[in-house]
Write a structure and sequence with these properties.
The protein has about 150 residues and is mainly beta. The chain has one helix and ten strands; from the N terminus they run αββββββββββ.
Length: about 150
């Protein structure tokens, strides 16, 4: 009887400490990169800057707003993820452009995710398109993400 009590107590402890918001945190996170008001964008490149003592960039995948596009990325500089989305048939509207995958190095840490050097080209003319940005953030203590946003127009 005592054996089962100990097993149940240990399992309960494991489940509670694994839950979000209990201070243990996640091993990895997915950070959406959002876009608003895109109008016939054919390519976009940007740097995502973050604290490399908190996160380590792992991968980038194209999402619904950039369906059919090719995404490439570089993680060669710690704390900076270079993302290039090109050959897009037509990036229009608002939504998730890509999702950046990160390994969490410090579950008690926090970092701003700042978008730098946005270069976007019009699908029809190849001319640069004006953008502004809104920074995102990650907090390991609350297991929360706030996606960065690229704003067109």
């Amino acid at each position: 009887m005592r054996f089962w009590f100990i097993v149940i107590a240990v399992l309960t402890l494991v489940l509670l400490t694994s839950a979000a918001g209990c201070g243990i945190g996640q091993d990895s996170i997915s950070m959406p990169i959002e876009v608003t008001n895109a109008d016939r964008v054919g390519a976009i490149a940007f740097n995502l800057v973050y604290d490399s003592s908190v996160l380590e960039a792992q991968a980038v995948e194209v999402k619904e707003l950039a369906t059919g596009a090719n995404a490439s990325y570089s993680t060669s500089t710690p704390g900076k993820l270079l993302v290039l989305v090109q050959n897009a048939p037509n990036i229009n509207g608002s939504g998730t452009l890509v999702v950046a995958k990160f390994k969490v190095l410090n579950t008690a840490g926090a970092t701003t995710l700042e978008i730098e050097v946005v270069e976007a080209l019009n699908l029809d003319t190849g001319e640069p398109v004006g953008t502004s940005v809104s920074d995102g953030s990650y907090s390991g203590t609350t297991d929360s993400v706030e996606p960065p946003i690229i704003i067109f127009g």
